Recover the amino acids of this structure.
């Protein structure tokens, strides 16, 4: 799975799953732009990409803002002339039961997780169609597949991403642009480290693999979907969850 000459943009790549995706794509040969909010952490990831022998670019982008995405992605197009791979990974949680959920928390999660992917897709898609090559990978979640109490905003956004994936995949399949989703299970990152020990133990008990996933478990799936070899796979959801949910 050689990604030489490919240009990738990974959102939310300052840490966690996004950082792992950026590094794995770079190791496979791609030049990688990392788009996130925290410049300092992104600079560190950029150094790691360069250490792998690839070009790196750091983009201060808030994916929930169309203007911010346009400005950041514009820098990549101006400098590297194309975008071949987009990983829509930026995501947040604001968990609560629906009866207690604040409108603001509903809105914020939808704006980042779902609108964010929409804005990024809009910025890259015409170029991918023109060059007859593109790989878009949207990071969804196991809870969008299985449901879960206390996450209506998050699950609506992540299930929305699966719908978006299928719709856009249908529109651009003839142009050699694939659009797929990856649905991670319970992955050890800063997003899950805040969970109370009791919840963590309950989750571990329902994972047949008997362990939490790692950011690399997800990144390897993303690398596959980003490859030339995955060209006939589109509109799919790749579940990477240690057996926690079997479709
Ligand atoms: P993470 O460590 O919190 O990383 C998410 C990154 O996205 C952070 O660097 C965050 O920046 C950034 N981000 C947040 N809002 C943004 C915005 N508006 N614009 C640009 N960047 C933004 O989380 P993770 O666990 O690696 O999760 C990555 C993705 O996988 C998310 O979409 C998440 O929903 C999904 N996922 C995770 C798990 C899991 O178990 N960890 C399971 C299923 C799905 P700040 O830190 O500055 O906010």
């Amino acid at each position: 799975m050689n990604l030489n000459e490919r240009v990738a943009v990974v959102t939310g790549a300052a840490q966690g799953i996004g950082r792992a995706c950026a590094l794995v794509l770079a190791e496979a040969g791609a030049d990688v732009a990392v788009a996130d909010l925290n410049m300092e952490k992104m600079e560190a990831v950029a150094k790691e990409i360069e250490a792998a022998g690839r070009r790196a670019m750091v983009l201060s982008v808030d994916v929930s803002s169309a203007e911010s995405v346009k400005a950041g992605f514009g820098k990549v197009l101006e400098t590297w002339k194309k975008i071949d791979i987009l990983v829509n990974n930026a995501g947040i949680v604001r968990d609560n039961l629906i009866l207690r959920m604040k409108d603001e928390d509903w809105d914020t999660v939808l704006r980042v997780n779902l609108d964010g992917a929409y804005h990024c897709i809009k910025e890259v898609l015409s170029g991918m169609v023109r060059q007859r090559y593109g790989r878009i990978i949207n990071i969804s979640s196991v809870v969008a597949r299985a449901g879960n109490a206390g996450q209506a905003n998050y699950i609506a956004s992540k299930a929305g991403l699966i719908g978006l994936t299928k719709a856009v995949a249908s529109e651009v399949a003839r142009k050699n642009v694939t659009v797929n989703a990856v649905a991670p299970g319970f992955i050890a990152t800063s997003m899950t480290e805040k969970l109370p020990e009791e919840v963590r133990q309950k989750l571990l008990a329902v994972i047949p693999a008997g362990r939490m996933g790692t950011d690399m478990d997800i990144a390897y799936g993303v690398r596959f979907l980003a490859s030339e070899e995955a060209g006939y796979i589109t509109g799919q959801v790749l579940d990477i969850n240690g057996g926690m949910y079997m479709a």
Observations:
- The pocket of NAP is lined by residues 11-12, 14-18, 36-38, 61-64, 89-92, 112, 139, 141, 184, 186-187, 189-192 (CB under 6 Å).
- The two ends are 27 Å apart (CA to CA).
- The mean pLDDT is 98.
- Residues 14 and 42 are 5 Å apart (CA to CA).
